[in-house]
Write a structure and sequence with these properties.
There is one protein chain. By secondary structure, this protein is an alpha+beta fold. It has a five-stranded mixed beta sheet. Helix 2 runs parallel beside helix 4.
Length: 273
């Protein structure tokens, strides 16, 4: 069998031309399309990775912000709770103080009312006792009670102890104003003269006097000069009687034998107001 080399060469050439044509017009565009698609896919994957990373970053940032918000919310809630507790405690304390002040004011008002009532009763009692005593003494004595009180006060001025006398003498020397004689009644001229003479003789000097009526003394007489005071009144006797009665009441409250009440004539009052 003879080989037709021309035909073989022509076929080989045709095959090579076909391969070249297929590579030139078919494989290369397909390869380019595949490369382009791979690049596009790689780009899209890169974009997707970038977007995924960005999304992860945003997710982490959102989670961090949520955590910070939760912490801030918890801190604000705790602060608001503490402030509410402090405000509640402050309001309770203010309410308690206001209640205590109101209670104290009420107690003070009750004590003041009781004190005023006691003083009113004491003054009324002293006035009634004095009225009864004056009427009885006036009926029994030849001189009025006022004259007797003036005589007693004059005698007390003459018999003052050395300390009281020295204090009153110093006060009379250092003051330029007249000494004030206050009495629960209007002293007659004879008693004023007797008091003036008693002072002049006691201190060996001419003592200037000013007389004034003071009903609150409850039948008494007091001499005031330069902060020093010499006083005597029936209220001294009533005070002594009140103390004795108070002691008796205290003794009655105790499981002891009653002590006999002591009664003594009060001494003239000498004090510095």
């Amino acid at each position: 069998m003879l080989i037709d080399w021309f035909t073989i060469c022509a076929q080989a050439l045709n095959f090579l031309i076909l391969v070249w044509l297929m590579k030139r017009f078919l494989y290369k565009p397909i390869l380019n399309a595949i490369d382009a698609r791979e690049k596009r896919v790689a780009t899209e994957l890169a974009d997707a990775d970038a977007k995924k990373a960005e999304a992860q970053k945003e997710r982490d940032e959102f989670q961090r912000k949520n955590e910070e918000f939760d912490q801030q919310r918890a801190a604000l809630l705790s602060k608001a709770t503490d402030e509410a507790k402090a405000e509640r405690q402050r309001l309770l304390e203010e309410t308690r103080k206001a209640a205590d002040a109101l209670s104290a004011k009420r107690q003070e008002t009750l004590r003041s009312d009781a004190h005023n009532l006691s003083q009113s009763i004491s003054r009324r009692t002293q006035q009634e006792v004095f009225a009864i005593a004056r009427k009885a003494l006036t009926d029994l004595a030849s001189t009025s009670l006022e004259e007797r009180l003036g005589e007693v006060f004059t005698r007390r001025l003459r018999t003052m102890d050395s300390q009281a006398k020295a204090g009153l003498a110093q006060a009379l020397k250092t003051t330029s104003a007249p000494a004030l004689v206050r009495s629960a009644f209007d002293l007659p001229a004879e008693q004023r003269a007797a008091i003036q003479n008693a002072l002049n003789e006691t201190f060996s000097a001419e003592i200037r006097l000013r007389f004034e009526i003071a009903p609150d003394l409850v039948s008494g007489i007091e001499l005031t000069a330069g902060g020093q005071k010499v006083a005597w009144s029936i209220s001294d006797y009533l005070g002594s009687l009140e103390r004795d009665v108070g002691e008796l009441l205290k003794e009655n409250d105790r499981p002891k034998a009653k002590a006999e009440p002591k009664s003594e004539e009060p001494k003239p009052e000498t004090k510095s107001p």
